[in-house]
Hints:
With 155 residues, the chain is mostly beta strands. It is 8% helix and 40% strand. It contains two helices and ten strands; from the N terminus they run H-H-E-E-E-E-E-E-E-E-E-E. The radius of gyration is 17 Å and the shape is globular.
Amino acid sequence: IATxxxxxxxxxxxxxxxxxxxxxxxxxxxxxxxxVEAGDVTLGTGDAKNGNYFRIPSVCNAWNIVAVAAQVYTVxxxxxxxxxxxxxxxxxxxxxxxxxxDSGEKDSSTAATAEVIDTANxxxxxxxxxxxxxxxVHSVTAPKGLxxxxxLRKP
Length: 155
């Protein structure tokens, strides 16, 4: 039986995969992407920016949010932009430390401070409605555009 690492790297052509290791692998993740702001629009602060939201499909019922990411189209300067993922259905914030994009950066993967998912608020149910709140933008030049991702995994 292949391990999770062997599933992730596809390093064997002869090993079988258990449902547990498949679920724990990169292939056991569902990604929901949201275009929060178009690439030619200067990003401003606000809750549920532009009314953009997403819903949890039934195939992800009782799954957990395991990661989030964000990217801007054009970088901002001075300070950081910060984002909160909010479960509208439950009225809870998902992140105990907000997702950020640093000055001069396009992507949250290079942020000096990593986001932290609040494990008390990471569970999702079919039909849950989520929005991205833009809590702050860079102070001198605001970025343009915003695309965010949520990664879900079956516990």
